[in-house]
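Below is how a single chain appears once it has passed through the pipeline. First comes the sequence as given, then the structure the pipeline wrote out for it. We keep one example in the README because the format questions we get most often are answered faster by looking than by reading.
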Amino acid sequence: MAVVQTGVYVELQEGVTWSALRQIATRAEMLGFDVVACSAHLMPLEAPGGWSLDVWPAMTAAALWTRHIRFGPAVLPVTFYHPAQIARLAAAIDRLSDGRFELGLGAGRHEDEHRAFGLPFPGHDERLAMLAEGVEVIRRLWSGQRVTFAGRWYRLEGARAEPTPIRGWLSIGGNSEASLRLAAAHADEWSTTSAPAEELAARLRRLDELLAEARRPTQAIVRTLMNGAIVGRDEGELEQRAMRLVRLVPRLAGRPAREVIERLVNEWGWWAGTPAQIAARAASALRMGFGRVLFQVYDWEDVAALDLLAEAVVPLLRAEATAAAAEP
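Resulting structure:
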């Protein structure tokens, strides 16, 4: 089993306030999580009309509120911003945080929010081509050299970006062949979301093949799984947390707690249960080849759930990793 890295993933667009984000970021750091990641959307996807914090001021605030934990968007659609803007903003926040910022990029997938804000939403293959060009632009600007670039989507003429990042961490999220190939060639991390075990295993195998083609060692890239988790010490606590989610996800309304939990597990791919049960599911992902697990936080007011994950789930993962490393 790989070294265990754990983190929390905040659905930033679903009504998260400044005070709530500060509490999550600082609490996650205090509890010993390695990463606090966030979504990057322009509007709520579940409950219309709520707050939807923009990723860049949110990440700037996280840089100032915390001291040790790494943080960043997972993932930011390249369709939202010009890659030169992304390169400059990411480098500035990385410097502000002494090298703790982790930039996650993807091709975008929600047409409605693009349409709502007047942003082009080309087809899937075209968005992936934009992502590939965007990654090249960002990597070249991060070098500190003058960049002239003539692509299909982006053009630069002698652009130079200062400051450059301290760490320059780049993650690619996505499951298509093109996304995996791009990650294998250029990324420090590849991230994905919950899926059946056989699908996840197939993606990991393909990533290893593409790393070999790119002549990069398998350990050159961190493999991250972001998964929803609803945890309770017993059935009653689990059901209470399920009903709290209903107010944040209106499409779950009108169902009893047990049915909500079953839907989260069967349709959304969430992990649900006691700390031991959550740890078993997360450990299975780590044994499969993932090096980092992010627990998705929908109920941003439920700090006690973060405490329970840190106190009763993460230690079980670390103990299993230690035992696995000691085996001959």
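The domain at 5-238+272-326 is CATH 3.20.20.30 (TIM Barrel).

See the next section for the split statistics.
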